[in-house]
Amino acid sequence: MGQRTETTPTSASLEGRRIGTASLVFMIIAASAPLTVVAGGVPSNVAVTGLFGIPLSFLVLGVVLILFAIGYAAMSRHVHNAGAFFAYIAKGLGKPAGVGAALTALVAYNAMQIGIVGMFGFVLSSILDALFGLTVPWAVCALIAWAVVGLMGIARVDFSAKVLGVIVTAEFLVVIVFDLIGLVQSPEGVTADGLLPDQLFAPGIGAALAFSIAAFMGFESGAIYNEEVKDPTRTAGRATIVAVSLIAGFYALSAWAMVVGVGPSQVIGQSQELGPDLMFAFLADHAPVWFVDLANLLFLTSLLAALVAFHNIVARYFFALGRDRVLPTFLARTSRRSGAPVAGSLTQSGLAFVVLLIFAIAGIGSTDPLFPVVTLFTWLTNMGAFGLVLLMGLTALAVIGFLRTRRDEYSTWTRIIAPGIAALGLFALFVAIVANFDVLIGASEPTVLSWLLPAIVLVPGLAGTLWALTLRRRDPHLYAGIGSGGSLG
């Protein structure tokens, strides 16, 4: 038993007391990439669904996620673990479900991070060609992001927070300028188009909500940093609710400004014709050239910020699972200099490099400049959203399971009603994603990818559940410690 204690990394911890509420809000918002959502996500959603009501979709989802965040924030006061979904589901629904959730989360978050690398490679390659006439393959550009993110991943977490804070602030300013120009121009007048219920609650709403939820991915990461915040009992919960409120309101406003600025009668056609270039084409007609160039560059840094945010999330999941010995224990190693989960960071970088290399080889000879966007980015980010929405639904149930015995501390609203409504909404959204998965990956009809990509996310979760059940029988000591790292009970 003595040897077991020496080799078990249950005492491993991340460097604490470095992140305040404001910094954590920036880190959460960075994962959602504000400029990327407004410039790329909104017109793509409008183009595919043909609905005006995309601005309203952000408010609807915001309400569901704030309800989720109420119970999530309450539970975060008691569970301080870098593997948030893993620990929450393990404590609320049982350790087998927790381990299954952890492996699904690892695949989903890796998919989000690696998929965004493809978009970054395409955008940087396009910018270099447009501004300097340089022809640089997208894969080479993607490797630049890969290297920068890898270096930031092993640095002090507060350094990453400061960099992301600058980037996110700049993104907000650019989008705010776009919003103001759109509302001032308003060729058909300032109307409520985009916010009216019948413009969203119509055929295609499932696809619209499935697209829009991607804008919120990463908001749940507040609890992942709970071992590193200045006040573990309050910071994560407060930052999560603030971030969700800001994201929902800001995206709804900006999407509405796009509808008004382009014109309700034109926005669907323009979105289908220009796609992610719609915002930049609009700015080119109404703003100085230098501002348009700045917006393009910030679109690139927006992607970089999201890459760093998701990389940090994955690294901490690896750390948490290594610490609990669900995965190899070396993953729990941290840097003595920076306190960062260096083994988890390097592992995520290694996985990203392998997947990037596979897609780079597959794209050799392709004449489609959008190859990394329609394959690497589209396939993997939708895989990620698929898995994470499922995990949020399970976490909402886990909150009910965990808080049910704490009647003296929390109201019925916090313990049952809010997370219960959130669970219903999230599972309904998960069904919508499943039903519209062909549309989300750009397929006109069911293909092999329609079941293969979701299976890549779900199968590891099933395997993790079976692995936990095996551990319960073979190694009760190890099983008892699953999900306990960093917990205060």
Automatic annotation (TrEMBL):
An annotated GO cellular component: plasma membrane
Residue spans crossing the bilayer: 21-42, 54-75, 96-124, 130-151, 163-184, 200-219, 239-259, 297-319, 340-364, 384-404, 416-437, 449-469
Listed Pfam families: AA_permease_2
GO MF entries: transmembrane transporter activity
Keyword Disulfide bond: no
Subcellular location: Cell membrane
Membrane topology of this protein: Multi-pass membrane protein
Main location: membrane
Annotated protein name in UniProt: Putative amino acid permease
Native organism: Brevibacterium casei S18
Lineage, top ranks: Bacteria, Bacillati, Actinomycetota, Actinomycetes, Micrococcales
